[in-house]
Automatic annotation (TrEMBL):
This is Nuclear transport factor 2 family protein. It comes from Edaphosphingomonas fennica. InterPro entries: NTF2-like_dom_sf, SnoaL-like. Signal peptide: none annotated. It comes from the Bacteria. SUPFAM superfamilies: NTF2-like.
């Protein structure tokens, strides 16, 4: 195969990995999240967690319990590929609305993922993922208003299997 075509295929598979991570995180789909990391992968979310990715995923139900909204958006994706190894600097905007004793708060983080990927058995997965915060915008109490008349009749996204996407899509499924 032409090396340029293989490079395009590799880049697209890695981009799909990155965006699937966002979907799995936002929908609290831990089964899907497990399929994205190699068994020996490391995840570094700072003080929240740093260690084996599978242990991070085991802790996600507890970490995500106060999260009423998670909304990860990736923007600039810079990739470098060398055979079965690749690195990526991935810019992101991540909105979190979390329950606190004083009511919900919003945290909008602008940052980057520093990623290392490996292709094993023909499939690209995360080998090491580090979150880097470049800025944050905090609102306590929350300024999100999902009950505003402007949204009347709109489907409202939710973490977990109650999200309207699971009733809409046939091909994009939970855990797959």
């Amino acid at each position: 195969m032409d090396a340029r075509i293989q490079d395009l295929l590799d880049r697209e598979e890695i981009r799909q990995l990155i965006t699937t991570y966002c979907q799995a995180a936002d929908r609290h789909d831990h089964e899907k999240m497990r399929t994205l990391y190699h068994a020996d992968a490391i995840d570094d979310h700072g003080a929240m967690f740093c260690g084996p990715a599978m242990e991070f995923i085991d802790k996600l139900p507890e970490i995500q319990a106060p999260m009423e909204i998670l909304h990860h958006n990736v923007t600039t994706i810079n990739l470098a590929i060398d055979g079965d190894y690749a690195e990526g600097e991935v810019y992101l905007l991540a909105l979190h609305r979390a329950k606190t004793p004083d009511g919900p708060m919003d945290v909008l983080v602008g940052g980057r993922y520093f990623d290392k990927y490996a292709r094993r058995e023909g499939r690209w997965k995360f080998l090491h993922r580090v979150i880097v915060a470049d800025w944050a915008n905090i609102h306590s109490p929350s300024i999100i208003d999902l009950e505003h008349p402007f949204l009347e009749g709109a489907k409202i996204g939710r973490p977990g299997p109650a999200d309207p996407s699971y009733g809409f899509f046939r091909l994009i499924r939970r855990g797959a």
